[in-house]
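Write out the 3D structure for:
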Amino acid sequence: MKHLKFFYLATALVAVMSLQSCDEYFYDNQLVGAWECISFQGYPIPKADEHIYVNYADRTGYMEAFDEFGVWTTFPYRWWTTDRRSIVIDWDYAFGAEPAEYFYDFDHGFLYLTDPWDPNRWWQYRPI
């Protein structure tokens, strides 16, 4: 009888462990779509700083923004979430940019990205 109890316990343990994902990243489908930046720290975005993020379900995307010459340009990236609060944007290495990480949150349909190193730096986005 003791062996049978151990068998049931071991079976339950294996079943629970097999339900856990091997993927170390959490996927938040709320981030999929096009997001237009409308404010920085509560102030409207100046024309020169306007930008749009477009996230696809396959964890690729692009940002459209003005480059240093004032030309509207597309910057591709890969993205993923490390938990239910952080998004990592890994820019195409051709642009020489380091990956960026932000805390994210949703409120009344708006997306908020916050700099994890300076919580006073945050952006508000609306879906487009």
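Strands lie at 33-40, 43-44, 51-55, 60-66, 72-81, 86-91, 100-107, 110-114, 122-127.
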